[in-house]
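User: Can you write out an input/output pair for a complex, sequences first and structure second?

Assistant: Here is one pair. Inputs:
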Amino acid sequence: QKEVEQNSGPLSVPEGAIASLNCTYSDRGSQSFFWYRQYSGKSPELIMSIYSNGDKEDGRFTAQLNKASQYVSLLIRDSQPSDSATYLCAVGTEKLVFGKGMKLTVNP
Amino acid sequence: DTGVSQDPRHKITKRGQNVTFRCDPISEHNRLYWYRQTLGQGPEFLTYFQNEAQLEKSRLLSDRFSAERPKGSFSTLEIQRTEQGDSAMYLCASSLRDWPQHFGDGTRLSIL
């Protein structure tokens, strides 16, 4: 059974700080990795995709992938209250396997 | 382009009734996926289509569940003889080939 594990959280950071979210996965053959943001009562929204080892930056978001350690992370710089949401790590191609999500609260 | 559209947004029904949900993918997307999400959990894969062909079904998709995608456009997910445990958010997503999946707003099903 392919599994994706996220830190249980919740995570609370002050406005302007860096929020760090982590995820590990069990299938060593995985090739595609995603971070989705989900506001309460809403559907998941894709914010980052990463396919190769290293860092990928998009605005205030940086995704990091280490396939040898089977580890993927998301850094949010200059966190804003509007970043408060649940962040879901997902792994796979046709069939995405999701973690349970990490609830992030950014305090003004 | 318009996003993934799901209908209805909310469905309340009595246990034992049949329900059907509809999903309209992003127009040029050839793949369509169904997931189910319960409170405090990440979405769980149910099934996916490439064009009109249903290529994979999760063991979560019991005999009471059926999905179709006639003509490779919209898709329907039917649940027969609903049970309390079917209460969840049913999410539809679509993608162009192996590109990232984009989700609709979901259908929230409540079983009385």
